[in-house]
Specification:
Layout (H helix, E strand, L loop, with lengths): L2 H8 L3 E2 L2 H12 L5 E6 L6 H12 L4 E5 L7 H7 L13 H12 L6 E7 L4 E9 L5 E5 L19 E5 L3 H14 L4 H19 L8 E3 L4
The structure holds adenosine-5'-triphosphate and magnesium ion (MG).
């Protein structure tokens, strides 16, 4: 069933209980064959934190995290394109590379598939960072634009077996985001400006994806 239709039909299901989320993830891992769970949401919503927590709970034999962030364009390419000042916007990623990887992950062959990851210290993607073995039943992929309806991003939704949208309180989320920038060495004023100008502009683009999710996660206990 098309995702938008599904949301319209069943409405929004909201939850915040980690145990319930873990149960859903275990159910996907036990469904037989390879399943892909997507976690979308605005910058700083806690997508990477939740994905890592789920993967820890299920263990490496059942789940692996493949971040959309691994498909950030390299800084030199962003400079060449004149997009470095809005790193994190939809057109600063290799969206087609991401959907190609999701297609490969849906039909595992005999060997390991390597996914890239984003190095927050270098602020660069690093190829070959995440090995996905052919027997791992659940791939958890997470990032901003999984449910973004425009361009190549519209291809992502149909490649997911289930999609969650993480939507904590906005003022809390902005605080987490500023704190994370500061922890990674940015000045507080610079961090606030970047979050207000860049991250929150992206948050507005991401928000409509909520209606396409199978589950909305408001806060994780
Ligand atoms: N439930 C929570 N309670 C407190 N802090 C949290 C919670 N979830 C996430 N955080 C903190 O908020 C910050 C953002 O979390 P995280 O990096 O997981 O978000 P994200 O959605 O992956 O962000 P991005 O879109 O930038 O990749 C981190 O510093 C994290 O430690
Ligand atoms: Mg993240």
């Amino acid at each position: 069933m098309e995702r938008e239709t599904r949301a319209e039909k069943y409405g929004e299901t909201a939850t915040s209980e980690f145990a319930g989320l873990e149960r859903r993830a275990r159910g996907l891992a036990a469904a037989g064959g390879r399943r892909i769970l997507g976690i979308a949401g605005p910058p700083g919503a806690g997508k990477s934190t939740l994905a890592a927590r789920l993967a820890r709970a299920l263990g490496p034999a059942l789940a692996v995290v493949v971040p959309m962030d691994g498909f950030h364009l390299a800084q030199a390419e962003l400079v060449r394109l004149g997009r470095a000042d809005r790193k994190g916007a939809p057109d600063t990623f290799d969206a087609a590379g991401y959907t190609a990887l999701l297609r490969r992950l849906r039909t595992p062959g005999a060997g390991v598939v390597y996914a890239p990851a984003f190095d927050r210290a270098l602020e660069e993607p690093v190829a070959g960072s995440v090995p996905v073995g052919p027997q791992v039943p659940l791939v958890i992929t997470e990032g901003n634009y999984l449910l973004h309806g425009a361009g190549e991003w519209a291809e992502v939704g149909p490649l997911l077996d289930e999609a969650w949208f993480l939507a904590p309180d906005d003022s809390l989320r902005v605080r987490w985001l500023v704190d994370r920038h500061v922890r990674h060495g940015k000045e507080e004023a610079y961090a606030r400006d970047w979050v207000t100008r860049s991250d929150e502009a992206n948050a507005r683009l991401i928000a409509p994806g909520r209606a396409r999710a199978d589950l909305v996660v408001l806060a994780v206990d």
